[in-house]
Specification:
It is a single chain. By secondary structure, this protein is an alpha/beta fold. The strands form 2 sheets. The protein has a 6-stranded mixed sheet. It starts with 6 loop residues before the first strand and ends with a helix. It is globular, with a radius of gyration of 19 Å. The protein is built from 10 helices and 10 strands. The relative contact order is 0.16. Helix 1 runs parallel beside helix 2 and helix 5 crosses helix 6. It has 2 domains: 200 residues, Metal-dependent hydrolases (TIM Barrel, Alpha-Beta Barrel), CATH 3.20.20.140; 64 residues, DNA polymerase, domain 1, CATH 1.10.150.
Length: 288
Amino acid sequence: MTSGFGYIDLHVHSNHSDGIKSVEEIVCSAAERGLRALSITDHDVTTGLTQAFESGARHGVEIVPGIEISSYCDGLETHLLGYFIDPLNPALNEFSNNFRRFRIERAREILHKLTQQGIDIPFELLQIRAGHSSIGRPHIADLLVEEGFVFSFQEAFNKFLAEHRPAYVPKIKVAAEEAIALIHAAGGLAVIAHPAVGVTDAVIHRLIACGLDGLETLHPKHQPYHIQHYRELAAEHGLAESGGSDCHGARQGELMLGCMMVPYHFLEKLKSRLASRTASISRTGRHP
């Protein structure tokens, strides 16, 4: 295919974090939908990337190694997408392993709080439900539905698991500045995910000063005026653009994979920025 043409999806979650579909199913669907490139950006883990590369090679889909780090800036939840990361980077692996351990501790505490609400779900059952995935609230929500304590996945969150509800346990808080440094240390680019979802322009400007590489301008929760604003902001500050479906799999309705029609030239510009960053590090011996 001619350079610059075609579509990509650079924000997708598998069952290695809080998605439903396996990496193989996602890559196969991407190929069926004619996507040229795909990034599996699981929350705080990189365990699905080896399979993604293998599946991508089989199905003819370019794989961009990714991650989505759940971080905070000025008290606001600020998710950062890391692209072109080295999955074998020791610092990144240590972070992912620590996060997985925290998720297990958090899940145990949530189950304890549910017990206080008269709901007994054994941790072993949760482990079986999660399988090889990183244990999270979606798995607990699924069990609450399956065991008949609620009627729907959303009701599980509304009644028990969401913030300010009786079984809520706060997430671990990673500073966005630290997340950017971690992504850079792993050889990647740091991009703010879905900035219209609670991220202020003040936070964006603060993170630009910390080496932010780009903004996710195309996202299902972005209205046209959001897209225009973030594209203008990216152009003003020389940031790359990204975009994706933020697909977690289809609990109901059609799979969203590829729905944002993100142009391939977004990926080309991300690659160009990566090359510039790499060249700068080679010349100066430090991150720009």
